[in-house]
## 1
Amino acid sequence: MAYDLEEQEKVDELKDWWKKNGTTVMLAVAVFAAVAAGMQGWRVYQNNQQRQAALAYEAVQSGVQSKDTKRIRDAAGQLIEKYPGTPYASRAALLAAGVNYEAGDAKSAKAQLQWVIEHAKEEGARDIARLRLAGILLDEKAYEEAMKTLEAPHEKAFDGLFSDLKGDVLMAQGKMADARVAYQAALKKIDEKSAYRQVVEMKLDGLGERG
């Protein structure tokens, strides 16, 4: 009998605890279930977005191979509008910018490169966009804006290219001594096995002593 009374007391205590805390427990369980379901749904959504973005990017690449400018522009525009958070969008924007610039549409090219700089998830893509944008600005003789673009923080792997382009901007401004310093800095950062070193060396030779 004592055992039954002890068990009954435990049951009563459990009932009392549940009466006081049951709602909170059920709410916590419901929240956990909702979060888990939400995370699963988000993963499915993300995977679907990646698949759709990959298909659109294939259309961009196909347009590049067939030199179909309209197809490149349309597919890149779709990626930027519908899948801006995917790496495919920034890569497509870089390709479309090149196509637009070659077609004489510098305004659209600059807008797409600026979009990459502001939205790309990959640092490398942002750095490539900065280099290309600075190159366009150099062609347009917008030297101060080009230099400002090149002064932005970037990955170390791009140091040589950034320094080289700074040298081009400075040389275009007639600042030969500063250009020489920039080219020398570029040589220090570019791999000795890279064929691009020869280009920088030629620029230095054109300025006189490499020093």
## 2
Amino acid sequence: MTARPETGRPLVVAVVGPTATGKSDLGLHLAEELGGEVVNADASQLYRGMDIGTAKLPVAERRGIPHHQLDVLEVTQEASVAAYQQAARADIAAIQQRGAHPVVVGGSGLYVRAALDVLDIPPTDPAVRARLEGEADVVGAEAMYERLRDVDPVAAQAIERRNVRRVVRALEVVELTGRPFSATMPRREHLQPTVTLGLRLDRGVLDERIARRVARMWEDGLLDEVRDLERRGLREGRTASRALGYAQALAELDGTLSRDEAQEQTTAMTRRFARRQESWFTPDPRISWLDATDPELVPRAVALVRAAIGDNGGHG
């Protein structure tokens, strides 16, 4: 399940999977049972004030367990995997120095891997990016994809040809580093001993959970939350304003979507997002999968982690 540790550091624990499977609750239980602290790996929960639409665990429900990488960005700031990687790894190291287990919880696949895996994040240059995006607007997605296939066929094979954003990013990296983008693509190698638990649900059950969650977001006051965030610059934030639920709530406030349409669109897009999360996490052989509806979920999860701790020299 995990490699032998080279140090006496407490084992890193991760809880991953699609949205609405109960990752936050399981992460909290594990931190409480094992003596740990939670490190968020959900990109939208990095934002201050984005609470209802991200299902962020309220402070009063965290049982005194420290949570890191929550509420660290203003909605006007752009989330960055590179910045997150640096901050999350610093949190993990500090938690281990306190003798506790870091419990990394989230469904943003690249953020999880940035925290846990050997992953070299290549540089970016806004001017180069803007030029390539401009070229893509002129010549089209297909021509840009063919250009990438010429310079980095391995990366092209891994990128969907209509995904202009990723094609442009790959070309940007090739131009800036002189190396193929594929050389920086993540590989499944943990930075240090880690046990990863994944939560899964029957697709029909997951779809129903997502629909209920979206309806509850509106009932709990998402529009009021978005009105407040709007005053704090939400519309100017490139990342935050596009978050699921928030973009639709803004459209409802603008009158371009009705409430029913906003909820239906949020539900449909969240279901598609959950499918992408499944596609990201399912092929990873390092993940031990658990049924999110199992009444014995918490004891099973704790047992898996304790077994991993035993395998790793008993530190825990």
